[in-house]
Amino acid sequence: MKISTKIALWFTLLVLLILTIAAFVVLTTTEKNVQRDFRRRLDSKAYSVSIIYSSRPLDYSSLLQQLNLKTPVGLANKNVIVLNNRNEQVYTYHDPETFPVTISEKWIDVAKTSGDAYYSLNEKKVLLRYFNKSPDSSYTVMVAAENTLGYRYTSELKKALWLTVPFILVLALFIGFLFYKGLIRPVTTIIHDARLISSSNLSHRLYVGNQKDELAELKITVNDLLQRLEESFTTQRRFISNASHELSTPLTAISSQLEVALLMDNSKEYYRSVIQSVLEDTKDLHHLTHILLQIAKGGSAGALELDKVRIDEMLLKVHADIQKQHPAYNIHLNYGNFPENDDDCSVYGNELLVYTIFKNIMSNGCKYSPDNTVTVNLRFTDHTIIFSASNKSDLLTAEEIGLLFEPFYRSSNAGEKQGYGLGLALTKKLVQLHKGTINIDYFDSNNIVFTIVFPAMTATTPVSD
């Protein structure tokens, strides 16, 4: 069943329920008011008879007869009886074509005990009113009549309600469909726009317009998701294209050298040089594939071994290893004030990957700096660890700065320096894996600063999928 049908049906059922409850309350209240009004009429009639009977004992019969002949509209098929203190009928009146009413001794006793008695007898309502003027002159007045006016009023009201129900149901269905159009039309628009989106057309976005409701928030969220997916697909396609090119280069060099070596007989030294060259290309290929696998691993933390990693100690280790491999590199470490809690100096992550992050940043800073010098500052504040590495750099454009984290991208100042353009791309993925952020600032003094902010163990939960 479509949502439009469901909304219309639920709306109609709700209206029907409200209508039923309202009709029940109106009918019940009306019937109670009609019955209460009719009883007051009977009571008023009983008092009128009592006044004449008690004040004019000699000619009360003729006066009562004249009074009862003038039948009010609200009292149809009336019976009036007066009983003395011995329960004897001293006056009786019945409207024409009205059957006499028999008074039960039980109801007379009830009237004498409580002052009045009110009950139904066939289609009539009977009221007994007891007047106790004195023990010898007490009497009881009975008035019985049919409430034809009240019955007609309630009957017409019921008929009007029954005739109104079909029109209200039709109106409810119509309003339900209008309500559906106003509520579901944006969803229909979302469905239409979503069908235009595919892996080859991620640039299409859901139309938001001037809406400010929850559906607009949903569209904005979906558009943000599509933006991230488009960027991810674009990066993936660029990465695959560049990786294929970079992998084919050493493979082509290896195969070319081997094919040339097999064309003719050569000296032992020649073959040794060929093997040495192939070995170097193979090592480069191995290193390249290792970096590519690390980048692929950087997308998930599920298979990583996670532990407490002390950042200041890790920087000392990275510093020592880089100095051992490259004695010409100069790294200056500056530490800020250490917090009292040891966990504020540590992150929860993978030791090898954290090592890779700092080694890539610090070694790159030395490699591409004209004086092979990088300055590292480490600060601790508000349960965060802030690492910054600055070094001198050749002039870079804003466009080049924005592409430094792209896989296989090498800036104009790379020159003949060895590398694949994957170090910073890998570093960014590993920083994000550890719930951190990395930013680049480039100053007019040709200083480039990489800033990494990690949440400390006191402010983060373990890295998870």
List the helices and strands and how they pair.
Layout (H helix, E strand, L loop, with lengths): L2 H53 L4 H10 L6 E8 L5 E6 L10 H10 L1 E6 L2 E8 L7 E8 L1 H48 L18 H50 L4 H30 L9 E4 H15 L4 E6 L10 E4 L1 H18 L4 E9 L2 E9 L5 H5 L20 H11 L3 E6 L4 E9 L10
Parallel strand pairs: 7-9
Antiparallel strand pairs: 1-2, 1-5, 3-4, 4-5, 6-8, 9-10, 10-12, 11-12
Helix pairs in contact: 1-2, 1-4, 5-6, 6-10, 7-8, 8-10
How does this structure look, described?
- With 465 residues, the chain is of the alpha+beta class.
- 54% of the residues lie in helices and 18% in strands.
- It is built from 10 helices and 12 strands.
- It has helices at 3-55, 60-69, 105-114, 148-195, 214-263, 268-297, 311-325, 351-368, 398-402, 423-433, and strands at residues 76-83, 89-94, 116-121, 124-131, 139-146, 307-310, 330-335, 346-349, 373-381, 384-392, 437-442, 447-455.
- The strands form 3 sheets. It has a 5-stranded antiparallel β-sheet with strand order 2-1-5-4-3, with helices on both faces. The protein has a 5-stranded mixed β-sheet with strand order 7-9-10-12-11, covered by helices on one side.
- α1 runs antiparallel to α4 and α5 runs antiparallel to α6 (268-297).
- The chain is rod-shaped.
- The model has no long low-confidence stretch (mean pLDDT 78).
